[in-house]
Design a protein that fits this description.
The chain is an alpha+beta fold. Helix content is 28%, strand content 33%. The protein is built from three helices and seven strands.
Length: 159
Amino acid sequence: MLESGCKAVKEGVLEKRSDGLLQLWKKKRCILTEEGLLLASPKQQPQPQPQQPAQQQQQQQPGAEPAAKIKELHFSNMKTVDCVERKGKYVYFTVVMAEGKEIDFRCAQEQGWNAAITLQMVQYKNRQAILAVRSTRQKQQHLAQQPHGPRIRSASNSA
């Protein structure tokens, strides 16, 4: 996402519940953009340069993990963000993906990640809806401007 020119709206650390048997909370470096959420390990650089192979990036960034470990949660695949509960210093929330997968997160209440993700997702969906309406209108205008062949009138119109 960042390579395509999307600006980072919010950056920081979130904790994600692992999918394993123990379901441990793991810290993830997160970058929220206008297109979605990038998740990386806290040590990883989440902005690989598109023109360089991954091997060169690893050599240039000692201690950084391979770029392949960056996970992207794109808003086009995201269904909802559910705020589950506020408990102690944490707010727990779930990102529900379109295919039904649920990803659990937690953060300090004052960080407001759940609200920021929800706001960006709603803005993304609104932009997509506007683009769809514009596209439909352009198609309709294009069809209206095309010269039509001979029209055949129906019996009800010719009377």
